[in-house]
Each structure stands twice: as structure tokens, then as C-alpha cells.
Amino acid sequence: MTEFRDTLFGDMPLAMWAAGGKGEPWARFKLAATRLSTSDRAEAVAALQAVIARADLESRHYLEAWMGLRDAGVAPPHDLAKRVLGVVLDVPMPNGVDTLAAYADGHARYLNFSGASIVWDAPDARLDPQVKALLRAGQALANAIGPWEGARPPLNEGRARISLLTPSGLHFGDGPFEAFMQDPNAAPVLQAGTELMRALIGLQP
User: CB pairs under 8 A, 24+ apart, for 150-155?
Assistant: First the structure.
């Protein structure tokens, strides 16, 4: 369950992410990871910028590439820095945590506290309205807060978290679910997430 959740944020080590597939862009990530390990910054940056330049990739590829570029000292341009490419919601349940993720490419993931999961890779547009609504709400929240400095922190037991994934890094809020529902910026994110989760579950046979 933890391993599945860790794939949602676009912040895995580049070599580990590169091991997830063959061909492109996986080969570019592998090259970047190898070059960074040997301090060949220029070639690593070129490989990651080649990923960014493609227009047909999953949002998580772009997030991974931007993470690597930031680590190499390359910041995203101002007009892209806070663009929300993904939203991850963690909501505490009596016996664990429910996690929902949605991305600008239309993909979505739902991980139930029981360990059951739903993977939506946007084979059609049925969930586009719900995904876009969640991304819009997440963007409004990201515009109001700054990026997190450092590694993504572990979840705090009994607290909800809203994670906003951008080229400039993770933006997040952490607190009691009830407090989020009273917050004018956080509440729309959770409400849109609830609608997406219901739609995902409703598509299951």
C-alpha cells in the first residue's frame, strides 16, 4: 500500500522511476540518473529537458523530470512553476487512510484503506469533468500557498492532507479533516475529490 502511494507524487528517485518501463521516456530518466551520479550535470539536464519538451507524456513523467531538474539546479520558468499537474488527497478513515490522486493528463488513482485500488488511465473522457474540477480547486489553493522545502514528509496519523504537485515542487496542507472543510480554499478541493472518488467507484463493475 505504501509502495503504491509513493508512485503518485512524481518524486521517486530517477533511477527507480526509470526502472518502471522500457523505451522512452524511461531511457531518458535512466540516462539522467546515471549522469547525475557521475556529476555530469549538463547531460543529465539535457536528458530531462528532452522529457519536458515532449507533449504526449503522463503528468507524473513531467513531475519526475522537474524534480530532477530542480535537483540539478534548474528552476522552472515563472509561468510554469506553480501550475498544478496533480492533486493527491489523503483522508483518515477509522481503519487507515483513503488516498485519491488526479492528474492534468486525465488519469486518476484511488487507494482504499483496505488495500483495494482503482487505476484510471483515461481510456475515454467520462471522468474528465471531475478530474478537471479537482485540478481547478487544487490550482486555487496552490496559488495561495508556497512550495514545501525538502523531502515529502510522512503522513501524520489522524490528519488529512492535500498535496499539490507542481514543477516547482510539492505544495501541501495538513490538518484535521473538519478544519479543512471549514477552510474556503481547502474545502472545494475535498469536495471535488469526493465527487471524483464517487465517479471512480461508480465505474467499477
Answer: 152/9, 152/11, 155/90, 155/97
